[in-house]
Amino acid sequence: MTEIKTMEFKDDFLYLIDQRKLPVSYEIFQCKTYRDVDFAIKDMVVRGAPAIGAAAAYGVVLAAKEFLHEDRDVFFSELDKAMNILNRARPTAVNLMWAIRRMRNAVEKHKDLPLDKLYQRIKEEADRIYEEDINTNKSIGKHGNAIIPQKATILTHCNAGALATAGYGTALGVIREAFYSGKDIMVYADETRPRCQGGRLTAWELKMEGIPVRLIADSVAATLIRDGKIDVILVGADRIALNGDTANKIGTFMLSVVAKAYNVPFYVVAPVSTIDFDIKSGEEIVIEERDSMELTHIENIRIAPEGIEVYNPAFDVTPNENITGIITEKGIIKPPYIENIPKLKEA
Q: Which domains does the chain have, with CATH numbers?
């Protein structure tokens, strides 16, 4: 199995695979300060809800390192400012806020320590978030493998692989587990416009590992589903509400509607940390709208008329009634979600 290291913290710097460059070139983006991490999240050097959370945690570490030799009051003031900035880097992925909350709790818990000792505790918490994510994804893969037929054709949307996490992946983690357990699978990866994460990232990951994959245009998926050529659909998530409504990359909702019409199982794959236990439904999820150039240009080449108005939401919300199940590290959650999801917080 090929190991893809989405990020690595070493020698007091955070190193990220620059996902803007894939698959044409493999480049590493170095974050020396928390401001670099903030930029990396906003500009999608790193993307995917769990990966954003882990990167933000290391952003807090970089901030603590930067102000380590200031007076205590200055240290805590600047660290709080950094956490606020990182917390706002992208509005939809709840793992970002979850990770920053964990880092705040670590700071509060150890605030009376000498600053050098406090820094070590902050670094240890970020390391835990990183390691926990990889182990969580492997558990998700094992649970998810149970719903993959021995001979299966799988459709996936966007990138929910190692690149979207600290490692291994959520939806692609299930696919990896199925493949390495000996199942005869084939994957359709749709391109996922406008940033083409399916074509650039998912296809790259699967091809690297020798997992059979075919790339399709987004508009081909409905035909494949209608014609009975898809056995199961696996997608990731950026935020899941208490009732099971799920925000994921734009185009997910459309796939869920077609899947429901043709009785194809549609699974959301995500860690429990992606569940927002504070919101009751998808109506409360803030949907990020991104730069119009993502639609009007490809690699800085204009493909749309000058001055055209653009609507470019990064995500949509799939209603719970379109979701067959939610695959987590604690098992597969089935409807009624409003009853079963809260149990995860108690477990």
A: 7-138 (1.20.120.420), 147-346 (3.40.50.10470)
